[in-house]
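Now read this:
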Amino acid sequence: MIPESRHGKFRSGAAVVAGVVVIFILSLGTDALMHATGIFPPWFQPMSTPLWIFALVYRVIYGIVGGYVTANFARARPFAHALALGGVGVVLSMLGVLGTWNKGPEFGPKWYPISLVLISLPCALLGAKLWTMRSR
């Protein structure tokens, strides 16, 4: 049997990982669906601003869902875990900013990856807030 402290740390890490995985799967799955149905142009082709806004909107929703999932798995401290999820989102989004900066229009306008950095924490915390409101 795993000692309680190690079990708690494992559960905390698993809660954050679960949120990241949910966001990742939903985001990439929706991207693939949008490209496959022709709503978005083929991969690595420039997109119009309204399409980038649409992608940002569903990423906001998925960020909230990820925060909700994380809070659900980390019931003892949902906001602390959502904050950790948001921090992971900030780091991963910053890597996206650095990786796509000045790479060309097929990687989107500069405001898009910056927006992903800015929404990470608020979305994760809002998801935790929704979970706590529902769990009462």
